[in-house]
Design brief:
Pfam families: HicB. It comes from Thioalkalivibrio halophilus. This is Toxin-antitoxin system HicB family antitoxin. This protein has four helices and five strands. The chain is of the alpha+beta class. Strands 3-2-1-4-5 form a five-stranded antiparallel β-sheet, covered by helices on one side. The radius of gyration is 20 Å and the shape is elongated.
Length: 172
């Protein structure tokens, strides 16, 4: 919590809710972006969200007792334009262009794919396309959520059905 700030709002934190299978049963997993050790499980999306809120508040109280501060909420993605300018060595530029050509995508799409993979925003799993709800969603105040799985869009939306099988669930 920042100096001079009296009230912490747990809903300002980036809470990720996703449907998972734990010990053979479907449930909802809640994680807090600013508190990577926090993982909560519940039977419903709303219960998982409430558990995450409670954990944020409990963690804040425990840290306050020990004289430490809770990390500040990260700014929402809306606060960023999505545009960056960077300089790269010529050899890296050449390598990225070559990779993009091999994949049949623009240089921009290739750089986004590489950065997304590295940062971990994109975590391809062997899921069926219809299970978009199983992909991570950032819960925001007001009930808004954001989801993305750019690799599926790239592989399938671009008409490259040769890669479709990697996104399909294995046959049971």
């Amino acid at each position: 919590m920042a100096e001079g700030r009296d009230v912490m709002n747990a809903q300002d934190y980036g809470i990720t809710i996703r449907r998972v299978i734990e010990e053979g049963e479907a449930c909802f997993e809640a994680r807090v972006r600013e508190l990577p050790d926090v993982v909560e499980y519940a039977d419903t999306h709303d219960e998982a969200y409430e558990l995450a809120i409670d954990t944020i508040e409990t963690t804040e109280a425990a840290l306050k007792e020990s004289g430490r501060a809770l990390p500040q909420p990260l700014p929402p993605a809306d606060d960023f334009s999505g545009r960056i300018t960077l300089r790269v060595p010529r050899t890296l530029h050449r390598a990225l262009v070559s990779l993009a050509e091999d994949e049949g995508v623009s240089l921009n799409q290739q750089i986004v794919a590489v950065l997304s993979y590295y940062v971990g925003v994109q975590t391809p799993t062997r899921t069926v396309f219809a299970e978009w709800h199983a992909e991570p969603a950032i819960a925001r105040p007001g009930g808004k959520a954001a989801t993305a799985c750019p690799q599926i869009i790239h592989d399938i939306g671009a008409g490259d059905s040769s890669k479709a099988d990697k996104w399909m669930a294995p046959a049971v």
